UniProtKB/TrEMBL annotation:
Any matching Pfam family: PilZ
PilZ domain segment(s): 28-105
Gene3D superfamilies given in the database record: predicted glycosyltransferase like domains (2.40.10.220)
Name of the protein: PilZ domain-containing protein
Species in which this protein is naturally found: Bradyrhizobium guangdongense
Matching InterPro entries: PilZ_domain (IPR009875)
Length: 111
């Protein structure tokens, strides 16, 4: 009896994990896959400069972590000094401490 219950629980856990993986794969709508990174960057605009951290990066855009959304405009220049990168971009989505951005031009970001 216990063996049947354990087998049933194991199958349920596996099926739930498989379902979650399928759901996450469907939710991924990006055309270009992002690479996980952890790089210090600067958001530059006429309103001023803001520090941030780049969490994910692709040739089409990035996911930024910011201390606050206050003062960060819709369009700005992202500068990543360690990668010698400077790109014009616009915000695509925002949450309390994160910004998803799209680069204005499609150039290779990282090798």
């Amino acid at each position: 009896m216990r063996a049947r219950i354990r087998a049933r629980l194991s199958a349920t856990r596996f099926n739930n994990f498989s379902s979650l993986a399928r759901i996450l794969a469907i939710m991924e709508k990006r055309r270009i896959r992002r690479r996980r990174v952890f790089r210090a960057a600067i958001i530059e605009s006429p309103a001023g400069a803001f520090s941030c951290v780049v969490r994910d990066l692709s040739d089409a855009g990035a996911h930024l972590e910011v201390p606050s959304q206050i003062g960060i405009p819709h369009e700005f220049t992202l500068s990543i000094p360690t990668a010698d990168l400077r790109r014009e971009c616009r915000a695509v989505w925002r949450s309390s401490k994160r910004i998803g951005i799209a680069f204005a031009s499609a150039e290779t970001v990282l090798p």
